[in-house]
Amino acid sequence: MDGTTGYEEAAGGGLIAGVNAACFISDLPPLTLGRSDAYIGVLIDDLVTKGTNEPYRMFTARAEYRLRLREGNTKIRLLPQARQYGLVDKSVIAQMEKFKKDVEKAGEYFSSRKITVNKKEGAVTLRSALLRGRSLAWLKRRCSFGKIPDDALEEAAVELRYGGYVARMERNIKKYDSLRDIKIPPGLPYDRINGLSTEIKHKLQRFQPEDLYSASVISGVTPAAVDVLMVELARQAVRAPVRSGEWKE
Asked: What is the pTM of this model?
């Protein structure tokens, strides 16, 4: 029905459809997962903004934020949505919250506890030892982590090792999320905007994105085209939120 193929894709789409059906009859805001939130968000966004000419399969390569979409941080990443929409039992929510606290505790422990690596390097923090290439297993053989669970230690170690890359990715996410605030009013005459190629005009006309972010993720829409749209909207003094809902020349 929606262009996907595969059990996981069907389950993901069905989950969102079921949750939002319940939200609709309960007069609640819909659950929306973005590309930086979950692979389900990538799947839905691709189908809506890019379309498909063949059965769609969800590959990790389709996600530009896959360093954030890790299995290890799922309990932390999707905790807000799970809590807000009651998607899991309270006991599971409690487990997710505990895991988040354990990861934070492990991170603090890595930064404060010191260990002697060798005579040349002397005593360094566990954080420094990890960043210098020592494995978590190596650290476990030399110091005690108390009651911190292994899965929390693993996740905290991953966050430390890839912290710089993740921070840069988070900045990019915020940059693109800011484009959501710039709304595109219905009826915008793309064919009259100078600086857009004919192909991009046709795609924008077809998909009718509601904001600049949605326009930016359409296949074939270049960053330069997004800049052109931004300038055009600024020229017409159209800012979010658009109250009239109609384009006026």
From this structure: 0.74
Q: What is the rounded distance in angstroms from the CA atom of residue 153 to the CA atom of residue 138?
A: 13
Q: Which two tokens stand for residue 185?
A: 């009013």
pLDDT digits (tens, 9 = 90+) for 106-122: 999 999 999 988 778 78
Scan for tokens 């799970």, then name that residue: 82
Residue 218 CA to residue 212 CA, distance in Å, equals 10
Q: What pLDDT, on a 0 to 100 scale, did the predictor assign at position 229? A: 92
- Residue 36: count other Cβ atoms within 10 Å of its Cβ: 21
Structure token digits, residue 9:
């894709």
Q: Read off the DSSP letter of residue 120.
A: T
Task: List the domains of the chain with CATH numbers.
Answer: 1-65 (no CATH), 99-175 (1.10.10.1800), 182-235 (1.10.150.570)
Residue 157, judged by CB atoms within 10 A of its CB (0-12, 13-18, 19+), counts as: buried
The tokens describing 16, both together, are 């969102």
Residue 157 C-beta-side C-alpha neighbours within 13 Å = 20
Peptide bond into 149 cis (omega under 30): no
- For residue 118, what are the β-bridge partners? 122
Q: Which residue has the tokens 């960043």?
A: 131
Give strand ranges (E) for 122-189: 122-125
Cα 64 to Cα 36: distance, rounded to the nearest angstrom: 8
Residue 145, SS3 per DSSP: coil
DSSP 3-state assignment of 186? Answer: coil
